[in-house]
Amino acid sequence: MKYYILLSTILISNLFSQTLNGIVIDTSGEPLSHVVVRELHSDNQNDNWTTTDDNGSFVIQVNGNSKIELKRIGFEDQTIQLDSNESQVFTLANKNVNMREINVYGKSNSRYLKNKSLNNKLGSFSKNGSLSQLPSLELRTYGGYAGVTSASFDAGFARHTKVLFNGVDLTDAQNGQVDLSSFPSFALRSLNYRLNSGTTYGSGSIDGTLNINTKNSPNRVFYSSGDYGFNQYGATYTMGRENSKRTITVGKTSYDGDYKFKDSITGLNNKRENNSLDQFFFAMNREFLVRDDLIININSLTTKNTRGAAGSTSFPSALATRTDEYELYALSFMKFFVDSSLKFYINRSTNNQVYDDPNESFPVFSEHDLDQSSFGLDFEKEINTNLDYQLSAKQKTDSISSTDLSNQKLNSSSASFLLNYTNKDKDFKVSPSTRYDKQSDNDKLTYNLSFESVDQFIKIDQSYFDFGLDAGSSFQFPTMNDLYWPDGPYSSGNLDLKPEESDYFSFNITNNSNVGKVTITATLKDYENLILWQPNESFKYIPINVSSASRTTYNINYLKEFSSSQLQISYNIYDSKDNDMNEKLLYVPDYSANIFISHNFNQSMNMVFNYKYTGKRILQYGSDSSDQTDSDAYGVLDLSVSKDFDALKASLIVDNLLDETFESTLGYPEPGRSIKLVAEYKI
Fold first, then answer.
1. Considering the entire predicted model, what is its pTM?
2. 319 contact partners, CB below 8 Å, separation of at least 6
3. What three-state secondary structure class fits 384?
4. What distance in Å separates the CA atoms of residue 88 and residue 449, rounded to the nearest whole number?
5. Average pLDDT for 445-454
6. Cα–Cα distance between 272 and 282 in angstroms, integer?
7. Domain parsing of the chain, residue ranges
8. pLDDT at 133
9. DSSP reduced 3-state for 6
10. 8-state DSSP, 671
11. Average pLDDT over residues 643-657
């Protein structure tokens, strides 16, 4: 009952506003975090301000004729008259430093930004559609809205893509992954991502990092209803005062989940049952401007998911259930100096996971209580206008109390160093970095060398090239399951496991012209000491470091923005090999493609198409007793049509518009066409 009371208390209207998406950078192109962005002469009943996140980005709802002020100690304040609601890039100059011909206010000049941002334009109610918009991100889903969902960049292993929430690590220490289905579709509105981020985020970020950002969500109340018994409602509201601000996002989702599918083996039509979901989501971000040089930030997250565990078409039984309750609390203090900044943070999360299958022939019950706590320091220092560095240190403890693993604990620590040299005359930047991590008896030293060059070969400001290069190493520590699985007749953990390792080289070239923005990227990766569970001479499954693999990825991305439309086309070619099996890696397609089209018919009506095509893949290697299982290529088209009626927005969301029959994971058929109707009210 308290959830419904909370929803009803935040319905306060504030109309005639527009949404401004922005990025704040310094004169060398680096993102500036914790910049205070304040609307001046606001007619809102609350003081209206926000701060930029770690990627320098922000979202704020402002009146059409407003001015905004950008402010951070050590930089010249900027006051800007807004003239549109499009995304903007703002540049702040260091105090006492003359600016060399650089746009203070522009639409696309993000220069050296390594982190990329995506604001979901599918109405934030198409879950897989929003994730599919990210170039080179591949999804594996396990049946419908309630099915477990994992994501990986460049078709890599899911455990090699780290998932964050407002910058806080969500990795499950038990299995090394994050189930994205625990986040409702409306929470995936704003995403930041970064490739080859090993020296920044450590274990588990071999291929990249995906950051879910709810801090910049617009004020609204929403309700959605659709096929398969889908119902979802919630709200986001920001309460601002001169020196404090609170943003609340809350929602409830229910889903019956039973749907018909065509069995890929028998060819017969069946009904998938026990796939229901009852989901509650609550996130709060609080910021306090104690002084111009001190900001305190508090983040909290609560999710509760109760679902039927439908499993594959053969296991488990129709009585199985799974419950996950997750809570996160994060506190940070940001202290600014004229030429440096210091951040101290403390994070704590708990996760209760219960699986229950009362099947009489083979009953199963397991419960896992995970606890993670960490604290750390981030220090940034500008030596001069061309040179700066960053130092980070972190201490983390993971513990588990489990019916399977008993009581276990893992302590880990890390330290990293990043140096940035920017040559503003030649427009290039060199960033060497290194990182040291230690977990129990395992330790790992990794490195990255990054080179970026922008605005090269300019022709009358209408065509120019950007170049980028990354070379380095990254790793993944063994999980608790790998290390501590109890010694039984059929399986056992292995305390002697080494970290998984990867060496990589990536090169990209971008051409910006009137034709559009074309980016070509080539990435080569080698993997060593990959952990596989294999049977020993007694047919007991034990994880060992036996596997090595390689993967070469080519990505071509085209982006063109018109006056009322946006077109993005992405094409990925994957050449992978499991060196032990002498086969392509499981679940890695030969290629994939994505076409995204957004069109504004007028100021109040918008239509979005997103089409994701996935090529053939190996789902299961052949053996003496069975043939290799391959999947057919498939394409999924998602559609969104929305209409604004002043403060009210109505949307039609259609997932899998073409009613494609497919399985992204062997034995887990996906539903066909799904239709949702959504009503949003700006507050």
1. 0.88
2. 274, 357, 358, 359
3. coil
4. 29
5. 94
6. 30
7. 2-113, 117-678
8. 76
9. helix
10. P
11. 91
Tell me how far apart the alpha carbons of residues 646 and 109 are, in angstroms, rounded to a whole number.
32
User: Which pair of tokens denotes residue 76?
Assistant: 């010249």
Rounded to the nearest 10 degrees, how much is the dihedral formed by the CA atoms of 516, 469, 167, 122?
A: 20
105 phi, psi to nearest 5 deg: -145, 110
Look over the chain and give the mean of its residue pLDDT values, rounded to a whole number: 85
Q: What one-letter code names the amino acid at 236?
A: T
Q: Does domain 2-113 have CATH number 3.40.50.150?
A: no
Which tokens in the block code for residue 400? Answer: 């588990």
Give the pair of three-digit tokens for residue 586.
């499981």
Dist CA 365 CA 355 (whole Å):
6
3 φ/ψ angles, rounded to the nearest 5 degrees:
-65, -40
CA distance 115 to 120: 16
What is the identity of the amino acid at 187? A
HEC string for 424-476:
CCCCEEEEEEEEEEEECCEEEEEEEEEEEEEEEEEECCCEEEEEEEEEEEEEE
What is the b/e burial string over 302-320, where b = at least 16 CB atoms within 10 angstroms of the residue's CB? ebbbbbbbbbebeebbeeb
Residue 39 in tokens: 């609307």
Burial of 363: CB neighbours in 10 Å, binned 0-12, 13-18, 19+: exposed
Asked if residues 3 and 34 have their Cβ atoms less than 8 Å apart, the reply is no
Tokens standing for 317? 């039984």
**Which position has the token pair 């009371």?**
5
Tokens of 629: 């299982």
Q: In sequence order, which ranges of 127-189 are alpha helices (DSSP H)? A: 127-132
Which residue in the block uniquely carries the two structure tokens 């170049």? 467
Cα–Cα distance between 190 and 188 in angstroms, integer? 6
Residue 11 confidence (pLDDT) = 38
What per-residue confidence (pLDDT) applies to 110? 55
Name the β-bridge partners of 467.
Answer: 453, 509
Structural tokens at position 265: 């083996």
**Tokens representing residue 148 in the block:** 């477990």
Q: What stretch of H or E contains 484?
A: helix 480-484
Cβ–Cβ < 8 Å for 541, 550: no
Contact, 212 vs 191, CB < 8 A? yes
Count the neighbouring beta carbons within 10 Å of the beta carbon of residue 548: 15
Residue 254, both tokens: 């229910």
SS (H, E, C) 622-659: CCCCCCCEEECCEEEEEEEEEEEECCEEEEEEEECCCC
Architecture of domain 117-678: Beta Barrel (2.40)
Q: In one letter, which amino acid is 427?
A: D
Residues in the chain: 683
Q: By the 8 A CB rule, do 80 and 68 touch?
A: yes
